[in-house]
Specification:
Structural class: mainly alpha
Radius of gyration: 14 Å
Number of helices: 3
Helix content: over 70%
Number of strands: 0
Strand content: under 5%
Oligomer: single chain
Order of helices and strands: HHH
Shape: elongated
Number of domains: 1
């Protein structure tokens, strides 16, 4: 299914407004995981970035109900 940029942005903003506490926890989790990846002299980012990307994709799909 193809969705426009504006529709995707509005959907994301609505998801944040409906779940602010969950979204803040997720943002904090992302920050911690990225910092751990950076603490290993950026080598850990090779693992953490795809992991966060994949998990975020699944979380987004679960949140918007697709």
């Amino acid at each position: 299914m193809r969705i426009g940029v504006m529709t995707a942005m509005v959907t994301s903003i609505r998801a944040v407004y409906k779940n602010p506490v969950v979204m803040m926890r997720w943002a904090a989790t992302i920050a911690v995981v990225i910092l751990v990846g950076m603490a290993t002299f950026f080598i850990g980012l090779a693992v953490t970035l795809p992991l966060i990307g994949h998990a975020s994709w699944h979380a987004y799909r679960e949140t918007v109900g697709q």
